Amino acid sequence: MNWYEKEITENLFSETLIDWHGQIIVISLRFSEIDTSKEDQSMLKYITGNKDGEGSLTWFCLPDSSTRKKLSEAKSKTELEAILDRITIDSYSAITTCGADVDYLDDTIYEKLVGNFKDGICNWKEKLDESLFGYAGSDNFNNIDYIKNKLIDFTYIDALRDAVNSMKQKYNPLMTMLRQIEPRISETEKNSVKVLIDSVNGTIGGVDEISKLSERINGKIIESVGNTYAPDIVLRSELSGEIKDIFRNLKLKSNHDKEFDLDSLGLGSTNIIYVALKLMEYSFIKEIDEIQSKFFCYYLKNQKLIYISIYKWHLED
Predict the structure, then answer these.
(1) How high does pLDDT run on average in the chain?
(2) What distance in Å separates the CA atoms of residue 232 and residue 238, rounded to the nearest whole number?
(3) Distance of alpha carbon 22 from alpha carbon 120, whole angstroms
(4) Rg of the chain over CA atoms, in angstroms?
(5) Among 22-31, 197-206, 219-228, which stretch is predicted with the lowest mean pLDDT?
């Protein structure tokens, strides 16, 4: 099971369904004006679905092959309902296909894919119909794997009910990106920051009232235990000059509003900021040199958000 399949839950299915068992989730992206005449773009021919230069990449969350086989073998409505009742979310898998040339928003198409369980009709087959589902590839056809690895990828974002709390976690999107850029910071810049922080530490420790308090603490310890056992105490600022530690203190602020703070924003605003950061985080993680343009689409259901990142070759010289 691929890592992005592990987050599939019952809540992803449409609320209009009385019962999700045996149903399907489809996310299909259609492309037009696909030019496969150039050699470096010829790979795009595998997503085309018709003669008009149009194509598609489609993600399905559907019953796995063994479950589909059981459903297809049901001899009656009663037997079909019994099999459906035994289906769990673990009976589902996800696949990506290319070149499907059908309208999945059409109810008649959906019924061809799944059937009409209410009437005891099941159209699931162990082997998927490529004219409806598109081409999923085979062991002897590696280009589909190339497309999956280079042109399409998936990630998952949890419910966004508390974006502020998520941003305070150790591994929030901002920290992920900062860790990504750390190797790009030159040693000269790192040393300059460290020197500056050391200077700040010295200035803080040298504040007159702090120095006096330090002396009084030291005097009281000597008074208590004597010079022999008394440590030489001093109040000292120890702000870290390490880039990693400095990153932890970086906050999202506004150039125009000094009072700006994530805690003071509404839920909608914080979620928008969080989603933007999450998109950027995903771009950082999945950044590939030869990929020059990225497309994102979102599937939102019951506060669960799946991001699908579609990559394609840049079609201009």
Answers:
(1) 76
(2) 17
(3) 12
(4) 29
(5) 219-228
